[in-house]
Amino acid sequence: MKTFIYSLCIVSILATACNENCTERTPVDYVCPYIGNISHLLVPTFPTVQLPNSMLRVYPNRENYTGDLIDGLPLIVTGHRGGSAFRLNPVNVVEDGTTKGYSYGNEKITPYRYSVDLDEEEIGIDFAPSHHSAVYSFRFRKGNGNIVLSTRSGKLEVTESGVQGYQDLENFRQTPDGKVPARVYLYVETEQKAAKTAVLETSNERSSAVALTFDSPSVNIRYGVSYISTEQAKKHLNREIAGYDVNKLAQTGRDKWNEALGKIKVEGTDEDAKTVFYTSLYRTYERMVNISEDGQYFSAADHQIHSDDGRSVYTDDWIWDTYRAVHPLRVIIEPEMEQDMLRSYILLAEQSTDGWLPTFPGIQGDGHAMNGNHSIASICDAYTKGLQDFDIRAGLKVAARTMNERSLIPWSRVPATELDKIYREKGYFPALEEGEKETVKEVSWERRQTVAVTLAACYDEWCVAQIAKSLGDEANFKEFNRRSFNYRNIYNAQTGFFHPKNKSGNFIEPFDYRFSGGPGSRDYYDENNGWIYRWDVQHNIADLIELMGGKAQFIKNLDQTFREPLGRNRYNFYYQHPDHTGNVGQYSMGNEPCLHIPYLYCYAGQPWKTQKRVRTLLTQWFRNDLMGIPGDEDGGGMTAFVVFSSLGFYPVTPGLPMYVIGSPVFEKSSVQLANGKAFTVQCINYAPENLYIQSARFNGQAWNQPWFSHQDMMQGGTLELTMGNTPNKAWGAASVPPSYEMNK
């Protein structure tokens, strides 16, 4: 494979992305879609080309950056990290079953454009997307061109203007009635009229392929996609794209990306940090995707076409990952979009047969993956921060129903089971002894995850309680508030860890907080071990400090998390815990349950340690290179941590309208708020190595607390931080951030 040199991430974006009149780099010029394209262990990032949150998105059809072949050209990726629904093969000679892979070179990718050369075929490719449509331009250097379009599960047919058809989308969680939940439609037009067309033989009766032959070495196509019909796909194309000009469409896309990314402006001398920052911000716009189509949308919840009532409808979200920082980021910079997304959750619940909120909603339906019901947290977070342009009473209704009726069993969307009965009666999800055979049929190979499930439920129930309290629903507030303290039932005061209990109420013994629980510690935790879930009480950190015996012991336990050895050689540690990457001791920067942990020092009076730890983690693990992301980047789940932390603050507790202060990376950053005001973080005595706060002022007034409220931010103004290269251990030590116990 002859790909372009990785130094694009550092230097060449300026030359390739700026137009002739560009005198300085704009936000999108800093985006390097290749960062993280080689993974540490599991799934890499993909260099996605799309407009912000748009339905049509593509990336090269290959395993990862090092793949030697691309497997045809993409037309639409229907789910995050999924493959293209259709396949496009430009070829010099048409043969039945043409589904060849290509050696390639000269690849260049920006968020709004993709170009590549196919080596042996000697074909040049150029591509640019719009919201529901796109343009491809082909240059056949060996002679006249041929285009083959195929679908692996659907039907394509040649039309007078090009090709149209559909592909059925197979859900990895098939609907109970056995239906295929969704279908994507395609409508294609060509600028040059085909001299010859053909329907090709395929090896599978469910697949379909057609070929177009041209009397020209230059072939341009444009196409539209839809989840409703081919007619709707054609409407999208005609509305969004006039002609076949890739340059014009790419410029429009460039402008839209600069509009989105420009909502946050950063200044400083570290150009690599700007690249990491804006690339991370670009990742947060990958999902959710807007599936409204001229006032309608397809709902996989009931297989029906609905009116969107004049509001955009969104899907494709992995909420276990994104509730932590992506949704809180949108509350600040995209509040209208965020409210439409929360409204979409509620619509999906109301349209479903069970009435439960989704956990991993996609165009094929709810993937109901991982554990917890954290769409509740995103609803709570937005509402407590003042976003109220959605039906919060309907939100409370479906949230309470979900927590009361749906089983807590991970990766499952089934009614409550005998395990849930124990949770209701005893206040914890029961565990099996090591090696004990599973007795509950609803539990999958993902196991019970009993500690992770209990802690997630406590947090979700706290979120329901906050919504109920704000709406004056005293009964729901009291019940869910009571349940939000269930984490106390599995706290082992002798060890200082959250420890699984069997159905009789006894702690599982013997027990190793690093390795008990099988692959990913899933018998008791999830993807991470007990050292990580020790800190998973986002809503009540003050109480967690008390459980551990006070601030001094809390700090000692935190320090040890970053120091505790793996306990095995790396081969054996990662064999059991492949998600537990980006290690600093037992801490895992590469997995989302860890994101809030470095900020917890502020709650025990040592914010200087948060400042040091956050900046060190950013430097160690988020870099301007192909392996610059330490774990799975689940559509903004991890990179939103980079955005917030680089700005100098983080939403430790979604649902509490406040932010904990860390250590800004930039000399100055300015966030454009939807109310027309701006929130600025300004560093005095700035230098990349000056990571410690010496003193602070907020709008000119002395500021001696390591947190500020959402209301403080929305009023606009400047947080001024005087920085140094040694810690001021007194700053912020006397005023800890709020948690539930301080906000009854």
Features:
single chain, 744 residues, alpha+beta, Beta-galactosidase, Chain A, domain 5, Glycosyltransferase, 2 domains, eight-stranded antiparallel sheet, 34 strands, disordered N terminus
Give a structural overview:
With 744 residues, the protein is of the alpha+beta class. It contains 19 helices and 34 strands. The strands form 10 sheets. An 8-stranded antiparallel beta sheet has the order 5-6-7-8-15-12-11-10. Strands 16-29-30-34-31-32 form a 6-stranded mixed beta sheet, with helices on one face. It has a 5-stranded antiparallel beta sheet with strand order 3-4-9-14-13, with no helix packed on it.
Briefly summarize what is shown:
With 744 residues, this protein is α+β, with helices and mostly antiparallel strands.
Average of the residue pLDDT scores: 94
Proportion of residues in extended strands: 15-25%
Structural class: alpha+beta
**Percentage of residues assigned to helices:** 25-40%
Q: Determine the number of helices (DSSP H or I, runs of at least 4 residues).
A: 19
Low-confidence stretches: 1-8, 10-22, 172-176
Top-tier CATH class of the largest domain = Mainly Alpha
In the sheet with the most strands, the strands line up as 5-6-7-8-15-12-11-10
Oligomer: single chain
When the domains are counted, the total is 2
CATH architecture of the largest domain: Alpha/alpha barrel
Distance, first to last CA: 60 Å
Rg, Cα atoms, Å: 26 Å
Q: Any idea what the shape is?
A: globular
CATH fold name of the largest domain: Glycosyltransferase
Strands, count: 34
Biggest β-sheet, characterized? 8 strands, antiparallel
